[in-house]
Design brief:
Helices cover 22% and strands 29% of the residues. It has 205 residues and is α/β, with parallel strands linked by helices. It has a seven-stranded mixed sheet. It has a two-stranded antiparallel sheet with strand order 1-2. It has a two-stranded antiparallel sheet with strand order 5-6. The longest helix has 12 residues. It starts with 12 loop residues before the first helix and ends in a 9-residue tail after the last strand. It binds S-adenosylmethionine. S-adenosylmethionine binds next to β2, α3 and β4.
């Protein structure tokens, strides 16, 4: 049976981190007054900062642990990259990747202002996407992959970038999927379905 997307995180760690990494810090000035509203907000360039309830649901499915290496595909405003950076802590690593260069510049500035236990979050960074390449294969493998844009099909190239026991959470054709790698081959994985969600499209190729 598919896990419920509403299952609460036992320690409410995700809610705590989402509050600590204030959404306001990653929004355009004209959107900051709306930060507490549970809806997507424009970040310009036709893109959005995701709805907080959706981010929380995806993070619960992703089961990020301290020390994990995480890929954040479609890092947009940088908010999810910062949240993931907090969840993995200084022993982990987070690579955000975003195809809109103007968003990369802005999100890097917002991320560089984030402090973690008195130090900058140097283990989280944001890369400009190569239009011909999905994800960051040169930096793979990742224990966790979060995709915040909707794919038409499950991208096998991202399954290739998971560790043999890694987890990817990705919306595909309007449905949230959790893909768990179960072995060394890309075909070694299980897929569970976790409800309907709308996202901007994942641009491939
Ligand atoms: C919903 S938005 C931003 C979500 C982000 N986590 C946030 O809350 O700000 C999804 C982003 O995915 C980006 N995107 C789409 N296709 C991409 C690709 N192939 N590689 C990297 N980023 C991509 C879009 O430009 C957009 O900024």
């Amino acid at each position: 049976m598919a896990d419920s997307i509403d299952q609460p995180d036992p320690a409410d760690r995700i809610a705590t981190v989402m509050t600590r990494r204030a959404r306001t810090d990653f929004l355009l000035p004209e959107q900051q007054a709306s930060a507490a509203e549970d809806r997507p907000l424009s970040i310009g360039h036709g893109q959005t900062n995701s709805q907080p309830a959706t981010v929380a649901a995806m993070l619960r499915l992703l089961e990020v642990r301290p020390g994990d290496r995480v890929l954040d595909v479609g890092s947009g405003s940088g908010w999810t990259t910062a949240i993931l950076g907090d969840l993995v802590g200084s022993a982990g690593e987070v690579d955000g990747v975003e195809r809109v260069e103007a968003l990369v510049s802005r999100s890097r500035a917002a991320l560089s202002a984030q402090m973690w236990e008195g130090m900058p979050m140097t283990w989280a960074s944001i890369h400009v996407a190569d239009p011909a390449v999905l994800g960051l294969p040169d930096r793979a493998p990742f224990g966790r992959i979060l995709v915040s844009a909707e794919a038409a099909e499950v991208p096998v190239t991202l399954i290739d970038q998971l560790t043999p026991d890694g987890i990817m959470v990705i919306p595909v054709r309007g449905e949230m999927l959790r893909i768990i790698r179960t072995g060394p081959d890309r075909s070694d994985h299980t897929t569970t379905r976790h409800g309907s969600f709308r996202f901007v499209p994942l641009i491939e190729g």
